[in-house]
Amino acid sequence: MTSRIKVTVKDNGFNRAQALLRKPRKVLSLGVHPKEAAQPHPSKAGVTVGDVAVWMEYGTDDKRVPARSWLFDWVDGEADVISRQLAADTMRWLFGKPPEDEATALGKRGTVYRRQIIDRIRYENVLERNRDTTIAKKGFDLPLIDSETFIESIRWEVK
Length: 159
What we know:
This protein is mainly α. It has one domain. Helix content is 51%, strand content 6%. It has a two-stranded antiparallel ribbon. The longest helix is centred in the middle third of the chain and has 24 residues. The N and C termini lie far apart (62 Å).
């Protein structure tokens, strides 16, 4: 006696996920981008926001400005959390019901990450303090904050 077995294959999104993964992936870029970097910084004539961003992140060759990592130290400290969040976002993007657009998911993270970096600069007191001469000139000791110019130049983009 011969028995017949009927097999039904249900995709559950695997083919869709494979097709999405074959497409070029979106990239979340966070920091001071070229348009903002080119803007003049009010601290000194001839200085751009990009100059300040680089000097603060890496310090200056003459050591007059110490490195005050406003971006990479945050990334290093949050790397595990960021990896888990982006992995979860990828799963929702690939298999969610309804699926979330990749650019939308990255944009949500960009908004949150930008806020965390700004809060770190403003409130967490993790950056090396200013010199006494700088404090006297500014009237306070908040590195990276002479005006809102630098803070407002921190942006995210999805490309």
